[in-house]
Design brief:
CATH class of the largest domain: Alpha Beta
Radius of gyration: 21 Å
Strand content: 25-35%
Helix content: 25-40%
Largest sheet: 5 strands, mixed
Order of helices and strands: EEEEEHEEEHEHEHEEEHEHEEHHEHEH
Structural class: alpha+beta
């Protein structure tokens, strides 16, 4: 009676929550702001969007932490606090609700990391925890026939990791997990601005540049925007104009790494499944799949059709949501 079953995509950049029968109810940044004056662990001040707005703008006593790094829990205590906050928020702050939870985890997660996810979820007030590998969840959410004896290839470009996987008969045949994804793109932009323009920009500015100017393939009409940062020579604030060509150059290495990981996965794929993939193509999911021209670059390099799934940012949570709605049908995909 008091159970609201949940599905969660616990991502490095965003945490998305799906409630059984209601769909996606929450999509917030995986950021927690903590006041360090109250002991070692400190007191949680804000979670999600409110905490992200504090990134790079806090006084010494307050730290904005991203508890997920490279798709796994980097800070157990903070992740637990974050999960607890999101779960009580979607359950209308009723702590007595004991939900069942389906949560996505990276492919190749270790037993220790798996245990950490289970424990963090249970201490956040969840009765039963089911784990699904992220590439599998993304493939289900993207509408791929994961239960059939056919090869499907999913490339899930998240915040911390890129998962490239070949799926058939409810299992991952082979995969590559790359610690190069959305965060690495932001980092590359920061480094490029520093190296080429002697200007220092923060994480949030880099992300804004990526969203507005980021592309992997030449655009019909190149774009430009003004960016403000700190001049590394004089130390004073400075504004410069940058173009989409600049940002494409800064992201070239990240794009190359993703293409190479797809090639490496295809090389290990059994020939029968390779035939299916060349016929049906590669599907891109995750926030990074929204990078303009990325599908064109991959299709050109690999020689296989490539498409971006519908609402790529929500592919994983849609997948875990579908598993939650029908645990019986999808029992073979649970870890």
């Amino acid at each position: 009676m008091f159970s609201a079953d949940l599905a969660i995509d616990l991502g490095t950049a965003n945490t998305v929550v799906y409630v059984r029968g209601r769909g996606v109810v929450l999509n917030e940044p995986s950021v927690v702001a903590i006041n360090k004056t109250n002991g070692t662990h400190g007191r949680v001040l804000a979670v999600g969007k409110e905490a992200k707005d504090m990134l790079g703008k806090t006084p010494g006593s307050i730290v904005a932490i991203r508890p997920m790094r490279d798709g796994v829990i980097a800070d157990f205590t903070v992740t637990e606090a974050m999960l607890k906050y999101f779960i009580t928020k979607v359950n209308n702050r009723q702590h007595f609700i004991k939900s069942r939870l389906v949560i996505s985890v990276p492919a190749g997660i270790t037993d220790v990391e798996r245990k950490a996810v289970r424990e963090a979820s249970q201490s956040a007030g969840v009765r039963e925890v089911f784990l699904v590998e992220q590439p599998m969840a993304a493939a289900i959410g993207a509408g791929l026939p994961v239960q059939e004896p056919k090869g499907s290839m999913i490339v899930d470009i998240g915040g911390g990791t890129t998962d490239v996987a070949v799926i058939s008969l409810c299992g991952i045949v082979n995969y590559v997990t790359l610690k190069v994804a959305g965060d690495k793109m932001d980092e590359s932009i920061i480094q490029y601005m520093r190296r080429r323009h002697n200007i220092l920009v923060g994480e949030r500015t880099a992300e804004m540049i990526k969203v507005n100017l980021g592309s992997a393939y030449p655009l019909e009409e190149e774009k430009s925007m003004e960016v403000k940062g700190r001049d590394l020579i004089s130390g004073v604030p400075k504004a410069i104009t940058i173009t989409s060509q600049d940002i494409r150059d800064s992201l070239a290495d990240v794009v190359r790494s993703i293409v190479e990981s797809i090639k490496a996965t295809l090389e290990k794929t059994p020939p029968e499944l390779s035939g299916d993939i060349s016929e049906r193509g590669i599907v891109l999911a995750g926030g990074g799949a929204s990078l303009l021209g990325l599908s064109e670059v991959i299709a050109e390099e690999i020689g296989v059709p490539v498409r971006v799934c519908e609402a790529p940012l929500l592919a994983v949570v849609k997948g875990v949501g579908m598993v939650l709605e029908d645990l019986k049908t999808y029992k073979n995909v649970l870890m």
